[in-house]
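Researcher: Next entry in the queue.
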Amino acid sequence: MTIEVVEGRSASDTRRILEALPDWFCDPAAIDNYVEATDDPRYESMVAISPTGPVGIALSRRHFHEAAELHLIAVDPGARRSGVGRSLVERVASVLAADGCSLLSVHTVGPSFQNEPYAHTRAFYRSVGFTPLEEHDGLDWPGPTLILVRPLQAADREEDVR
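Model: Structure for this entry, 162 residues:
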């Protein structure tokens, strides 16, 4: 699948993709919050576009000059396991590293909560260079949240991900 990752915002595509992923995004209020963040200028937004249209979204937020958070990444079910998520992460990392950011973090459901879809999510994050840092209960939801981190290096600045 040919994918181009570009800076852009599309609240309607964010909603469409999240609603198509009920194993991860089943809370309507959470979906509304992510859709709202898509239009919030405090978040950088990347969109993965295939020949048929947008198939992925990534939102990141810079907390400090040196550190940012991958706030959201979601890929349309029909495009999963085709490199879209990896392309989004690499593009986010590249843009952040080029601007002097040295650390990217992400939060997800922790491993002490038995859930197969989130086990796949954690495996994906590890496959794109994130390392588990710590797990906390009640951080983003009542259950366990795993914080993963990825150092951004000169190699990330040289990525030309499309």
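Model: The chain has one domain: 4-157.
Researcher: Noted, moving on.
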